[in-house]
Every structure is written in C-alpha cells, then in structure tokens.
Specification:
By secondary structure, the chain is α+β, with helices and mostly antiparallel strands. Helix content is 11%, strand content 14%. The strands form two sheets. Strands 1-2 form a two-stranded antiparallel ribbon. A two-stranded antiparallel ribbon has the order 3-4. A hairpin with a 4-residue loop joins β3 and β4. The chain is flat and about 65 Å long.
C-alpha cells in the first residue's frame, strides 16, 4: 500500500479544543526580558536599537606563532599549517 507522506497526520493531540490551544499561545509580554534574571546577564535582544552605543574592541595583529590562511582567510596557529601555495600559507583544513 502506498503512503502519502505529504498528507497531514492525525494524532490524539489533534482533538484538543480551540480554548486549550489558545491557552498555550504565549501572551504579548512573554518576549520581555526580566531585568532581575541572573541567567542572562548582559545579553541584548534582537531588534533593539543599539546605534547610540560605542563598542570598543581590541584587535590584536597575528602573533609570531600564527599565520593567515590564504584559502579561508582565518588566522591559524602554526600547528595548523599544511603547505605554502603560490598565494601564501594554507591550513590543514583547507588542504584536506
């Protein structure tokens, strides 16, 4: 017998009432972050306007034991060096 995998499947959960489904729908305030929540310190929600914040990031240049792979353009440790190509060093992941 052929099975239509695209057809909707009926289970026992499909018999719930509309009121029961509406009770499970989160209310409009469920997306509000509790400021006293200690589990999420310092995280910002997506969609907030952060244009007035100045973010200071310290960018370090590649160290003596690092190289920039010319295939993936990531800074890698010398232990990940595989070979030297015409363009420059290639890491072991890119050469695989």
């Amino acid at each position: 017998m052929a099975t239509d995998y695209d057809a909707p499947r009926k289970t026992d959960d499909d018999t719930e009432s509309i009121q029961a489904l509406q009770e499970r729908v989160p209310d409009k305030m469920s997306g509000v972050v509790d400021v006293d929540d200690a589990d999420n310190p310092g995280f910002e929600l997506a969609g907030q306007d952060l244009s007035d914040l100045d973010l200071d990031v310290v960018v370090l240049p590649p160290q003596e034991d690092e190289f920039t792979c010319m295939s993936c353009f990531l800074v890698k440790h010398q232990s990940q060096f595989d070979h030297q190509s015409d363009l420059g060093p290639i890491c072991a992941e890119c050469s695989a």
